[in-house]
Specification:
This protein has one domain (about 5-165): Four Helix Bundle (Hemerythrin (Met), subunit A) (Up-down Bundle), CATH 1.20.120. Strand 1 (about 110-115) and strand 2 form a beta hairpin. A two-stranded antiparallel ribbon has the order 1-2. It is mainly alpha-helical and about 170 residues long. The chain is about 60% helix and about 5% strand. Helix 1 packs antiparallel against helix 4, helix 1 packs parallel to helix 6 and helix 3 (about 45-65) packs antiparallel against helix 6 (about 125-150). The chain has 7 helices and 2 strands; from the N terminus they run H-H-H-H-H-E-E-H-H.
Length: about 170
């Protein structure tokens, strides 16, 4: 399904798009970042928190990272301070890229078994599918954040993968 090169490419894309989103979000006031805008996680700040939470949940399974102290329903409020959220995002992106650099076909070819808090049961799925999900989840919620930032009058520049990583 995927290769280690795919994961490295998507980790690089994720990091660059996060830099662009956070740059745009930093040009807004804290009040504007926290304004409820009708998105699934409410605000720009809440959506950025949930994105970080999701990455850290998946990486706790894939690489033994510390699991977030908050559950899914509280993920939008995981980090209140925007500067801390941004710094944690940057560190997470660097760690995620380092993880992708060490991936190999053998690890990707195995199944991952874990207890899913969302499904409330033990699941076992191919790691290739789960890594695709990790990056798809990022893209999905980053799109929501991008739409809210655009509506707030901010821009991130190109978002197309082939333009961002060219």
């Amino acid at each position: 399904m995927i290769t280690p090169a795919y994961a490295r490419t998507m980790a690089a894309y994720n990091a660059e798009m996060n830099r662009r989103l956070y740059a745009a979000a930093s040009r807004l006031t804290d009040e504007a970042r926290r304004q409820q805008r009708g998105a699934f996680w409410g605000s720009i700040h809440g959506t950025l928190n949930h994105l970080l939470w999701g990455d850290r949940i998946w990486m706790s399974l894939f690489a033994g990272w510390p699991k977030p102290e908050f559950g899914l329903k509280q993920s939008a409020g995981m980090i209140e301070d925007f500067a801390e959220l941004r710094a944690t995002r940057e560190a997470t992106d660097a760690d995620l890229s380092a993880w992708a650099e060490q991936l190999d076909d053998a690890w990707l070819g195995a199944d991952q078994t874990w207890f899913s808090g969302s499904a409330q049961r033990t699941l076992s799925k191919p790691r290739t599918l789960l890594v695709v999900h990790l990056f798809n989840h990022q893209t999905h919620h980053r799109g929501q954040a991008h739409a809210m930032l655009t509506a707030a009058g901010e821009q991130t520049g190109d978002t197309d993968l082939f333009l961002v990583l060219s």
